[in-house]
Amino acid sequence: MSFAFHNYTKAQKVQTYVFHNKPAIYTEALFSDGTKEYLIPAEPMPGDEITVKFRTAKANADHVYVIYDGNRIEMHVVESDGMFDYYAAKLDQIGKDKVEYYFEITTGNSTCYYNKIGVQVDNNPDYNFNIMPGFTTPDWAKGAVFYQIYVDRFCNGDLDNDVLDNEYIYIGEGTRKIKEWDKYPAALDIRNFYGGDLQGVLDKLDYLQDLGVEVIYLNPIFVSPSNHKYDIQDYDYVDPHYGKIVHDEGECLKDGEKTNKNASRYIDRVTNKQNLEASNEFFSRFVEEVHRRGMKVILDGVFNHCGSFNKWLDRELIYEGQEGYEKGAYPSKESPYNSFFKFHDENAWPNNGSYDGWWGHDTLPKLNYEDSEDLYDYILHIGKKWVSPPFNVDGWRLDVAADLGHTEEFNHKFWRDFRRVVKEANPEAIILAEHYGDPYNWMQGDQWDTVMNYDAFMEPITWFLTGVEKHSDEFRGDLLGNSDAFIGSMRHYMSRFHQQSLEVAMNELSNHDHSRFLTRTNRRVGRTHTMGPEAANENVNKGVLREAVVFQMTWPGAPTIYYGDEAGVCGWTDPDNRRTYPWGHEDKDLIFFHRDIIRIRKENEVLRRGSVMFLHGEYKLVAYGRFNRTDKMVVVLNNNYEEMSVRLDVNCLGMRDGDKVRQLILTTEESYIMEQRTYVVENNQLFITMPKISSIVLKAE
Questions:
Q1: What's the CA gap between 267 and 679, in Å, rounded?
Q2: Which helix (H) or strand (E) holds 109?
Q3: How far is the C-alpha of 307 from the C-alpha of 222, rounded, in Å?
Q4: How far apart are CA 383 and CA 361, in angstroms?
Q5: SS3 for 482-506, per residue?
Q6: DSSP assignment, residue 648?
Q7: Phi-psi bin for 378: left (phi > 0), alpha (psi -120 to 50), beta?
């Protein structure tokens, strides 16, 4: 992490060098990006005529060139608006292959270059702009507000489908129904259930709609034995504990009983086709209602591994003798699913436990695609099934997507095929992957649409505002308030995205794998088993959370709220981050704040699809603009514990002397303010005094 941040700061110094040498070129006016105003069409098809545009200060440049694929084409002014000249050029010979380009600008004896991270003395091809003909992402997802729901902890809408005490054994102990909704998750929480279900989500759609949510992302909902459900038991059906139990016979296990073959109540609930079909039908109606309200639904796809309860493996022997099910690969060498798993001891049957587990976990058998064409085809069928009628979900979030298979080459092959079948079934479905590290090779138009945006969102803003690592496992005072590291890392990691991927990237502050952002504001290192859950609530700063949410809602991408963050939920990392939604004792002020900042985002298209430019950075303070040809907005974050005044050069956004700028929202350490206030641009600058721990969103009139 330190090495990477050092490099980004070095890139910043290159830009400063250009400015300090005062070249004849007014470098602050230079601009281009991959938005629809500077790349036409923004998502070109092979064979399309493509126009790229570039902006300079008016009458400031002698020559502007676009350089691509060995070509150096002079651009010409096609429009001027009093402040800027807009140059354009058409790119010839565009086929199916990726095109990389950058700009060269000359005035007199001065020459500089412009690429994805801005003005450069020498162009670094790693930061070239790029075009991938034929690569499109769904328009409905561009800039949309997502809401992530961990279903068991959101709302219990159907008491009849709750997991019961000792309904079955998981990892050595019986299941437990938690009767106190507000109880903190236990340090070992995997077999504890609070009763949240899809009926509960359905019951709260009014709340989500009023909040401004446009897309619901559900953590896994398929038949699975854990509360997190990343250990899939049956990919074909929604878990009846989340759906509908219409046939409910059998017995729970007695205390001390350790054999799931005798868990007849559980077996009836999750293998009986009446329950499974009823749950799928209920889910179909659920999606229909969400769509009727103008919202979307995406599902969690766990395709790298399944669970030891899975019907293909059947380590728990719960499918043996059940009508309509084949023998599992664990009890029988003759199982039709034997090739779905990699067994290392061919002499261990029956009950062969020598299969590969993901990261060595025997409860998470790794799927063996390379040796099973049937498995490969079946998972492709699953990918297609849920985005097709009658379910019609709007896409997939892919769990540990880069881990699938045993080689990267095979991994890319699988995701190419997955994209093909999903997009054929539903061209508007989104394919969004969980990924840590550089996703570039997967986002070339033939695999993923985008990723959960850790590198270019969650990590940089977390370090800058809290100094705490996203698991609350480390504190870095050198990164807290370090605007050079923040701005440099954002620019670098954003450069790894095509524009259409960036605009749909899942921008989260918290999720089910990391500590709650509000807890990170206490700048403490800890986990629930070391510090206790109460410590996660202590010394938190809601003003810092509000700063982060303002950044989230005014930055390019798809801002994604982890359920309960908007209501003030705290928590260390997994499992403490999976606390229940606090119905009845929510932080109403935080909810109102989220509703208002989401409304501001939705009312200003420039916040969804506009360009972005950093305006200023100093210790604990950053400012940036969102802009297009018609709208200009300015955002400032002050994370200092003292008032700060700042002068921002805003003519680079297209603002002129005398322009009025209206305050849309001001957040403070205590709350937030929606009252109107007007600022005036003087001497090409906007002068703003920011309270301590505050953020502001301004819009040019």
A1: 66
A2: none
A3: 11
A4: 25
A5: CHHHHHHHHHHHHCCCCHHHHCCCE
A6: E
A7: alpha
Q: Which two tokens stand for residue 257?
A: 């009983």
* Cis-peptide into 556, omega within 30 deg: no
> Could you tell me if 215 and 297 are in contact, meaning their C-beta atoms sit under 8 angstroms apart?
yes
pLDDT < 50 regions, the chain = 1-22
What type of residue is 471? H
- Torsion sign, CA atoms 683, 689, 694, 698: negative
Q: Is 97 exposed, middle or buried (0-12, 13-18, 19+ CB in 10 A)?
A: exposed
Q: How far apart are CA 18 and CA 119, in angstroms?
A: 8
d(CA 10, CA 157): 54
First-to-last alpha carbon distance for the chain, in angstroms, is 41
Residue 82 has a pLDDT of 87
User: How far apart, in Å, are the Cα atoms of 54 and each of 29, 74, 369?
Assistant: 10, 11, 47
Coil/strand/helix, residue 180: coil
Q: Are strands 621-627 and 110-115 parallel, antiparallel or unpaired?
A: unpaired
What pLDDT score was predicted for residue 7?
35
C-alpha distance from residue 145 to each of 220, 287, 393, 562, 595 (Å): 20, 17, 17, 11, 11
The pLDDT assigned to 104 comes to 98
Task: Give yes or no for a contact between 665 and 550, defined as CB atoms under 8 angstroms apart.
Answer: yes
- Residue 47, judged by CB atoms within 10 A of its CB (0-12, 13-18, 19+), counts as exposed
Question: Can you read off the two tokens belonging to residue 224?
Answer: 């699975």
Measured distance CA(355)–CA(476) in Å, rounded: 41
d(CA 220, CA 148): 11
Backbone angles phi, psi at 142, to 5 degrees: -70, 110
CA distances from residue 505 to 354, 451, 693 in whole angstroms, order as listed: 39, 6, 27
Q: How far is Cα 51 from Cα 40, in angstroms, rounded to an integer?
A: 5
267 contacts 322 by C-beta, under 8 angstroms: yes
CA distance 564 to 380: 34
Closest CA to 138 of 389, 504, 399: 504
pTM of the model: 0.96
Residue 489 to residue 456: CA distance in whole angstroms: 7
The answer to whether 457 and 508 have CB atoms below 8 angstroms apart is: yes
- Residue 598 CA to chain centroid, in angstroms? 17
d(CA 583, CA 606): 34
Question: Tokens 């997190």 label which residue?
Answer: 228
Separation between Cα atoms, residue 383 and residue 423, nearest integer Å: 10
Pairing of strands 99-107, 110-115: antiparallel
Query: Edge-to-edge, what's the strand order for the sheet holding 39-40?
Result: 39-40, 50-57, 84-91, 76-80
Query: How many residues are recorded in the chain?
Result: 701
Residue type, 72: R
At 24 the pLDDT is 82
Q: Which pLDDT score is estimated for 359?
A: 95
Contacts of 517 (CB under 8 A, 6+ apart): 462, 466, 509, 510, 545, 548, 565
DSSP 8-state symbol, 414? H
